[in-house]
Design a protein that fits this description.
Elements: E1 4-7, E2 9-11, E3 34-38, E4 47-48, H1 58-64, E5 81-88, E6 94-96, H2 100-105, E7 114-121, E8 126-131, H3 137-145, H4 149-152, E9 153-157, E10 163-166, E11 172-174, E12 178-185, E13 191-194, H5 204-210, E14 225-227, E15 230-237, E16 242-248, E17 254-258, E18 266-279, E19 284-288, E20 292-295, E21 302-314
Antiparallel strand pairs: 1-4, 1-20, 2-3, 3-5, 5-12, 6-13, 7-10, 7-12, 8-9, 8-11, 14-15, 15-16, 16-21, 17-21, 18-19, 18-20, 18-21
Length: about 325
């Protein structure tokens, strides 16, 4: 099988802005809050945008050709991950996601563990990331009722290049002025705890059930490796995804090779730069800021040539 481009599903949530238009996202809506770049989720499926299967949803394609997801995906009932671009013009709600066991017992979907890569952040931008200090459930509930919850949370200043792994059960929020890439489980299960008076539904009872009331520490990033003119950095991983950042080390174009691996598909999300993907039989796919690319497991070999920065995501299974 050959690699192909993906067309994302776009969301116009009330906190979104217009920064994703610079990534080639086109919408008639006033804002683009999220762009679901790799998604088989029924609330926002992406479509194939090039090649023989253009126009079909990725879900339909993988239903017909499950081997394209790769051997490591056979353990999952559904396609395991979802990759997004998020433009937080305003604050997102303070929220928490359940683990798989709780989510499946209360609605049938998956839980949600996620990873954030900060693409850009305005001066003073911050995220909320777990508790400052350990809390009892009674104190947690009281802080919600008396509107002091924000004082109990860890406020973390962010800048471009920061990475945060957010296990299920971690109370969190994206602050205003942040543009990020999110790699997550294939889930849209969210329990809002605080929403800045915007009048949307809250889910206090569920949050009391699932929130980790102890502080969560950030994981140190591994040191980048140098591979054939590319700087490669492992971002984070879990049972559902393995994510890495790749970027050329100079302004010269470099070659990045792929193909033949049947263990997992490979998703590429271009964050900056330009280049092209070439298959062994001469096909060419242009790559630029915002390009979303799916390389099926067992794909014919090829190479990417250009001056680029991109995130690769796959499903990795330790032997």
């Amino acid at each position: 099988m050959k690699p192909f481009l993906l067309k994302p599903a776009l969301k116009d949530y009330i906190w979104g802005g217009n920064s994703l238009r610079a990534f080639g996202k086109v919408s008639a809506a006033d804002r683009i809050a999220e762009s679901w770049e790799l998604s088989c989720h029924p609330e926002g499926e992406c479509r194939i945008a090039s090649g023989d299967f253009a126009g079909r949803t990725l879900t339909d394609f993988l239903r017909e050709f499950p081997q394209a997801a790769g051997e490591n995906c056979r353990q999952f009932r559904e396609f395991p991950m979802l990759v997004k671009l998020i433009d937080a013009h305003d604050e997102l709600s303070v929220q928490v996601h359940p683990d798989d066991a709780y989510a499946m017992a209360h609605g049938g979907g998956l839980g949600k563990t996620e990873l954030w890569y900060i693409i850009d952040a305005k001066p003073g931008a911050e995220i909320l990331y777990g508790m400052k200090e350990p809390m009892s459930q009674a104190d947690f509930q009281q802080s919600i009722e008396d509107n002091t919850l924000l004082d109990k949370l860890r406020h973390v200043p962010v800048r471009a290049g920061d990475v945060f792994f957010i296990p299920a059960g971690t109370l969190h929020a994206v602050g205003r002025g942040i543009l990020l890439a999110e790699i997550q489980e294939n889930s849209n299960t969210t329990y809002r705890v605080y929403d800045y008076g915007r009048g949307r539904e809250l889910h206090i009872a569920q949050a009391l059930d699932v929130t980790n009331l102890r502080p969560v520490e950030t994981e140190p990033l591994s040191r980048p490796a140098r591979i054939d003119g590319w700087k490669a950095q492992h971002l984070s991983d879990c049972a559902y995804f393995y994510a890495s950042l790749w970027e050329t080390e100079t302004q010269a174009e470099e070659t990045w090779r792929f193909g033949g691996d049947t263990a997992s598909f490979l998703h590429i999300l271009v964050l900056d730069g330009s280049g092209a993907l070439y298959t062994a039989d001469g096909d060419c796919l242009p790559l630029s800021k915002g390009t979303s690319l799916f390389i099926p497991a067992g794909s014919q070999s090829g190479e990417i040539i250009g001056n680029l920065r991109f995130i690769t995501t796959e499903v990795y299974q330790e032997q």
